[in-house]
Amino acid sequence: MKVILVDDEPTMHLILRKMLVKLPGVQVAGAFTDTESAASFLSENTDIGLAFVDISMPGGSGLEFAAKMEALASPLQIVFVTSHKEFALKAYELSVVDYLVKPVSQERLQRTVNRALASQRGIHSSSLAAANIP
């Protein structure tokens, strides 16, 4: 699964990349410091399955980004990675896969990626089954 990172802290890009590279089947396709660049990249790269998004960023919050992706009916799955525990309820209203509070452990990241992969397989299986209905 191809993933992107959206966080205004370049240090988080390094940390998450280092952790994600250890997970089989995961490829980091891009890292962005703002939601606008990420959205632009996604419009041209429709094969991205998962985005790790910070909530609090200058120039556009992760919550706004998730709402925009949902409004576009994007198949992109979103995981929030943030220091802000207080936005969890609002985040889940946007149908996100998970909500990780920094610092993130390798174990917790692995569970999140497994959940996203299982969800992606389920969606893929459902669309194949729907296509084969007479």
- The strands making up the biggest β-sheet line up spatially as 2-1-3-4-5
Q: What is the CATH domain class? A: Alpha Beta
Quantity of strands, as a count:
5
What is the helix/strand order? EHEHEHEHEH
Q: In CATH terms, what is the fold-level topology?
A: Rossmann fold
Radius of gyration: 15 Å
Count helical runs.
5
Task: Give the uncertain stretches in residue-range form.
Answer: 124-133
Q: What spatial form do the alpha-carbon principal axes imply?
A: globular
Structural class: alpha/beta
Strand content: 15-25%
Which percent bin holds the helix content? 40-55%
Q: How widely separated are the two ends?
A: 31 Å
Provide structural commentary.
It is a single chain. The chain has one domain: 3-Layer(aba) Sandwich (Rossmann fold), CATH 3.40.50.2300. The N and C termini lie far apart (31 Å). Helices cover 46% and strands 20% of the residues. It is an alpha/beta fold. A 5-stranded parallel beta sheet has the order 2-1-3-4-5, sandwiched between helices. The longest helix has 26 residues.
Summarize this, please?
The chain is α/β, with parallel strands linked by helices. It has 5 helices and 5 strands; from the N terminus they run βαβαβαβαβα. The protein has one domain (2-131): 3-Layer(aba) Sandwich (Rossmann fold).
Feature tags:
134 residues; single chain; 5 helices; five-stranded parallel beta sheet; alpha/beta; Rossmann fold; 5 strands
